[in-house]
Amino acid sequence: MRLLLNVIWLVLSGFWMAVGYAVAGVICCVLVITIPFGLASFRIANYALWPFGRTIERRDSAGVGSALGNLIWIVVAGWWLAVVHLVTGALLCLTIIGIPLGVANFKLIPVSLVPLGSRIVPTD
Q1: pLDDT tens across 98-107, in order?
Q2: Which of 4, 49, 74, 98 has its CA 20 to 30 A from that of 11?
Q3: Range of the domain at 97
Q4: How far apart are CA 116 and CA 57, in angstroms?
């Protein structure tokens, strides 16, 4: 079932979400000071490409630097990506087969807002 959902996800929204995160990652990696944001964006792009079977987990070791970085990320790029996930999730929920895909989009909103201090782990 995960394979089927991932393939449908990839076709309907996953590819374009991953491209959006990759573009944000490239832009962030251009400047030296924003490289951690770029790396986090590439990690989320990988997750947005194939989300079923993986989940997001908060790291307990994340500190003040991570919180400050997340605040900067929200202002610069996070809220744009969160709005895209919200709109895409709402559109996908209009169909019966799209409801799990819409829910997956809604699950990506928190990590799109605060990517630093979280990691992507398998659900198994």
Answers
A1: 898 899 899 8
A2: 74
A3: 2-119
A4: 11
